[in-house]
Amino acid sequence: MYISLRNAPASTGSAPRARGVRTVSSTVITLGVVSMLTDISSESVSAVLPLYVTGMLGLSVIAFGLIDGLHQGVSAIVRIASGYTSDRIDRPKWVAFAGYATAMVARIGLLFASGFAALSAVIVADRIGKGIRTAPRDVMITIASPPADLGRAFGVHRMLDNIGAALGPLIAFVILLVVPDGYAIVFTASLAFAVIGVLILGLIVPNLRSRGKTDAALSPDREASGAALSATAAPARDRLARDRPARARMTDVWRGPMRRVLAASGLLGILTIGDGFVYLVLQSRSDFAAQWFPLLYVGTNVAFLAFAIPFGRLADRIGRARVFVFGHLGLLAAYVVAVLAWDDAVATVLCLFFLGAFYAATDGVLAALAAQLTTPDNRGTGIAAAQTVVAVSRFLSAAGFGVLWFTVGPEVSLLIVAAALAVAIPLVLLLLRPFLSSARQVPA
């Protein structure tokens, strides 16, 4: 059973939104600014970490591989617990704040870590902070936005987020260009951006709640953006949230419509190898890619932020599940371009273009789809579950692709994964067929 939210009324006392005028809540913008500052902080460190570990600290490539594995996989451990906690206490802002603050404290540790164990501990703390903050932050975006415009809201947020992801490596690049051994300066700048982000979150972002009322003085956006549920559905749903045990609310995520989304996310995630592997394939055949390798991540993020809002709006209009699945055609195109005998510069630019389009069509859109298919009392758990499945499957994909690369070589490995992805996309379309027709329905 579904309740249509196509004409969801605005909250009592709010001015009706003019027909055709589409706005994004200032809360979404503020959360985007927080994410932008935090990504400047984290990506400036990520960009120099390989050089810092192997050059400045003199550790082996194996040690860096272990640290990078921690960097990629640790956040998945705490995502579901964070989303469940956010649902349980109905305080997503403060759960997210704990995650941002944890990552900020980890930045202080970077200034003093000088060995493998210390650096690993700092990376683990930073990634745990990321795992804690992601789902509650996405819950706040959902609360602050009209259901029909969730894709647009997440697109705006991800655009701001990826501005930070692009600026971080550039800032680190410039610092090391001026001061070749200025890693301490990079880490200090990273800490400064993290502190500013935490302060903005704590002092400016309103204390939005899924089931209760938001503090009136702090949340004009919630009333101005329109009700998240229809007037007839909200009282029944709030009563259901209060009456049902927390454990039952959590298990709902693993049943019903979200089960299909989690299966689809896992299948596609297994066939999503890390960007670094694609860049290494380009580097092996391209002098252009080798020369500009440190800035390839920046190029992907620039393409991501260019497509984030258009694809978010498209998802609201034609269906979030549809955009999520077809977004993987961009990933498939990047795989194929990376191994074809094209001009080096053209192949590199096209790969960055397709990778950015892929992320823009899947990252925020998946969060919007999970929010669409969950209720206010289990929304954080649902979003976190989808993100965890993606993180774990991509971690397994990276490990498996490394073995495949060693066995048959980079180009053949990439073609094998591309062929498997070409088969998986229509299968996932069949799996998500119930959600392809409308973006503006949520389960009752």
Question: Any key phrases for this structure?
Answer:
mainly alpha; Growth Hormone, Chain: A; disordered N terminus; disordered C terminus
Overview of the molecule:
- The protein has helices at 26-56, 61-73, 75-89, 92-110, 116-143, 150-178, 183-203, 220-224, 233-243, 246-251, 257-270, 275-285, 287-291, 296-318, 320-326, 328-339, 344-372, 379-408, 410-431, and strands at 2-4, 441-443.
- It has 444 residues and is mainly alpha-helical.
- It has a single domain, classed as Growth Hormone, Chain: A, CATH 1.20.1250.
- Strands 1-2 form a two-stranded antiparallel ribbon.
- Residues 1-21, 213-243 and 439-444 have low confidence and may be disordered.
What is the topological layout?
Layout: E1 2-4, H1 26-56, H2 61-73, H3 75-89, H4 92-110, H5 116-143, H6 150-178, H7 183-203, H8 220-224, H9 233-243, H10 246-251, H11 257-270, H12 275-285, H13 287-291, H14 296-318, H15 320-326, H16 328-339, H17 344-372, H18 379-408, H19 410-431, E2 441-443
CATH fold name: Growth Hormone, Chain: A
Unreliable residue stretches: 1-21, 213-243, 439-444
Named at the architecture level, the CATH assignment is Up-down Bundle
The CATH H-level homologous superfamily: MFS general substrate transporter like domains
